[in-house]
Amino acid sequence: MQTTVAVADILERKDFIIRLAKSLIKYGAPSHRLEDAVDHAAKTLEINLQCIYLPNLMIVSFIDSETHTSETYLLKVPAGLDMYKCALVHQVQKLVTHSSMPFEEAIMKLDTINTEKDAYSRWIIVLAYAVAGFSTAPMFFKANWIDAMISFVMGDTVGLLVWLSEKVPSYAHICDIAMSALVAFVAEALRQHNVCTSAIKFAGIVMILPGFTITCSILELSSRHIISGSVRLFYAIVFSLLLGYGLTFGASLWSLFDHSTRGDESKFSAECPNVPLNPLWNILFVPFFAISLNIWLKAHPRQWLLATILSIVGYAVSYTSSVYGGVKTEVSSAVAAFAIGLCGNIYQRLTRQLTFQAVVCAVFFLVPGSIGLEGAMAWFTEDMSGGMNFALQMVVTAIAISVGLFTSALAIYPMGKTRSAQMTF
């Protein structure tokens, strides 16, 4: 009887670890920390295992040294971003590792979290796409009010198309190219009205730019997760090429209707014909973009304030160091990432609350997705040297961000965390 109870206890512990691993992947925990988090939970529960994480897949092997047997599980889970549920899962993991919650209750908690509805309806998320396009057009791409309003409509359209791709699997394969092509087609159609076409193109698809994915891949490579980091980096570069192809295709498609633009290479230019808004307006645009990102990340409204503050800090440091300090992009990005990570880690150490969501939101202000997209467009306009330079700058900026984040973690947690897993960048 005691043997039966002991076996059942071990099986429940293994079940908790498997559910925990699935939840961490599903809700967007830092990918370069996943293996350490699962290992830490296993050691706390006195389970011997080995695990390896690949994009959308984790291999977990439970090893029994007494019987010289092992069980291997392939956990195929699509990676997502749900910062509210990620914080709840981290809290459950923390209570278990601190022996404040039995793992039987923890399993029930994880099941409850998995069955909860999303924090926001689809229409609110679509509106977030529109607000992101409106706020980033003048803030990052030197647009005026008219360009910002057009970007609002384009962002809303992209949000609807993303929704459609989730409902129609066959459309999902060409969704990214179709969205970028549509945005470029409309932007070129409005060129005769003296709008900033480059701002509309980039701002319209700002929420699907691959900069954050590139940054995560560099973080994984820096953490010696070579396989997952290489796969993610290659995917992000190819994804930027797909978006670049879509923008180029949409612009060229308009030339079929407007013959005067045929052979006009200036249609790919990033120059804007109108005077951009005063940079002081960015004081308003930064919180708007931060809130739209929080909604897209499915963060709880209680998490918005810290994320907005860190976003303002990161943008202010990046803007002042690059504009007034005259430093290069890779330096300003590293300094801004360090400031974001430092503030987030200090707050987490003082309050014992997870700040990963706030740091993720702030890092989105620094991601080099638009640089990579310009490089992809340069390739398709037969500017090979320009394309290579932009692509290289994209990776260099991602490296700068990862250096800043790792340095901030080193400053606050020089020896890591002993009682719980370190769920930070």
UniProtKB/TrEMBL annotation:
The chain crosses the membrane at residues 119-139, 145-164, 171-190, 202-221, 233-257, 277-297, 304-325, 331-347, 359-380, 392-413. Residues 283-409 form the Threonine/Serine exporter ThrE domain. It is found in: Membrane. Keywords: Membrane, Transmembrane, Transmembrane helix. GO terms for molecular function: transmembrane transporter activity. Signal peptide: none annotated. It holds the Pfam family ThrE. The keyword Cytoplasm does not apply. Its main location: membrane. GO terms for cellular component: membrane. It is a multi-pass membrane protein. Residues 15-253 form the Threonine/serine exporter-like N-terminal domain. Belongs to the ThrE exporter (TC 2.A.79) family. This is DUF1212-domain-containing protein. The lineage of its organism: Eukaryota, Fungi, Fungi incertae sedis, Mucoromycota, Mortierellomycotina.
